[in-house]
Write a structure and sequence with these properties.
149 residues; single chain
Length: 149
């Protein structure tokens, strides 16, 4: 049993190391928050533009991206900051699935409920195409290592 688990984890690690670096197709589908009961949401295009700007300017550093996003939000009026947060909450709720939790568990070698929350936050920070691609796809790209970066 231990050997089978070791082999499986080794295969996953090798696939992650030697993955294809591809971008997911541009999202053209139904909004994940369209059916949300949360009021006063920020328009998704604006939400994803803020996330995209922070990601682009962070040069791949997640902590720098979070700081840049914070600076962008601080420049907005309070109502827009609140609407950004509501949109974020709707996306977090919409991304709560066992399939995604399973992927997070496999990638992290375990995944508590707090860890899963951080994972979904990180996934949102990767941008619209990658986030929606993971949520909408039946087969997770995480298993193949495609589209993670």
């Amino acid at each position: 049993m231990k050997l089978a688990i070791t082999i499986l984890l080794s295969i996953l690690l090798v696939r992650l190391i030697f993955r294809k670096m591809i971008d997911l197709p541009r999202f053209k589908g139904k909004s994940i928050i369209a059916d949300s009961n949360i009021e006063n949401l920020m328009p998704e295009d604006k939400f994803w533009e803020l996330v995209s700007n922070s990601k682009r300017n962070s040069k791949g550093n997640y902590y720098v991206q979070c700081q840049l996003l914070r600076e962008q939000l601080e420049a907005l009026p309070s109502k827009e900051i609140i609407s950004f947060n509501r949109t974020f909450i709707a996306l977090m709720a919409g991304s709560y699935s066992f399939r995604l939790w399973e992927a997070a568990y496999a990638l992290n070698g375990g995944c508590s409920d707090d860890c899963f929350e951080y994972f979904r936050s990180w996934l949102i920070a990767q941008g619209r195409n990658k986030f929606i691609g993971q949520i909408d796809t039946q087969e997770s790209y995480f298993w193949s290592g495609e589209g993670i970066h």
